[in-house]
Amino acid sequence: MSFRIGLIAAQNKPEALLLADEIKRWLGTRGCDVISEDNLLAGIAPPSVLVTLGGDGLIMRMAHEFPDVPILGINLGKIGFLAMTEREDWERALTQLIERHYTVQEGPTLTANLVRAGRSISEEWAINDVVIRAGMQMIEVQLYVDEQFVNVYPGDGMIVATPQGSTAYCMSAGGPVLGAGVKGFAVVPICPHSPIRTTLVIPEESLVELVVVHEHGGHLILDGVPQAAVAEGDVIRVRCGDHLFRLVMLAGMNFYQAFQKKFNFMIRPDVVPTLHPHRPVNGTR
Q1: Percentages helix, strand, coil for the chain, rounded to the nearest 5?
Q2: Structural domain boundaries, residue 192
Q3: Whole-prediction pTM value?
Q4: 206 shares its domain with 125
Q5: Are both 149 and 177 inside the same structural domain?
Q6: 253 occurs within a structural domain
Q7: Annotation says 56 is catalytic
Q8: Which residue, among 92, 71, 2, 33, has the nearest Cα to 249 in the 3D structure?
Q9: Which of 176-180, 206-210, 222-226 has the weakest average pLDDT?
Q10: Within a domain: residue 39?
């Protein structure tokens, strides 16, 4: 199969649409087969790789639409943790892409099965996280890992996050950041009504069961999208998903540099590393 590039721009960003036209012409002069978003959605030609012009939200939507296809994100959003290529670097990035000078970073996904009265109500998959979220009143959620009872958490709910999702809601809720390549998931209570706020990191082959044990219900949310209301007695079974989240990694891309740069994660910005001082700090070259 020939190397086909699917090009998708954020429709709500005029600068993304203008850049898409420029990139399409640039790729065309280099003999690349560029597939439009309409043709991608119509399934006319399966892409070898997707190039998104927008932010992390667009990457997430396209990863759901085209599971297992590698994605290179060119950032026109705000933080852009997944979209590691900045707008001004698009030509350098695409040159590496079409010359096949890239690797693919693979991350696990999650499958969430909502079980009510012993019957499966729905099953969906997530790239970042599976969340049980309370409404206006506190709920209680029991946590089981591999059928072993762990604890009950009164509070605003629970998060199960993948490594790529650990820098999203998980981190905001005080959970751990899992480096790229970690074979595990983070389990994080949301605002528990307890001084015990321990989060867990579990192997990715684990079965996680979240049981709503309070009369006040909540919502099941996957990747920020509400899926269903949950009520007392409902069980959400979370496992490693069948799909992979695949990001194109170019020369110079690094999880820890991206974390430093995007989240300003530097206690002393002018520090000179003792080890490997020739390597860039905080995204500089």
Answers
A1: 20, 40, 40
A2: 110-242
A3: 0.88
A4: yes
A5: yes
A6: no
A7: yes
A8: 71
A9: 176-180
A10: yes
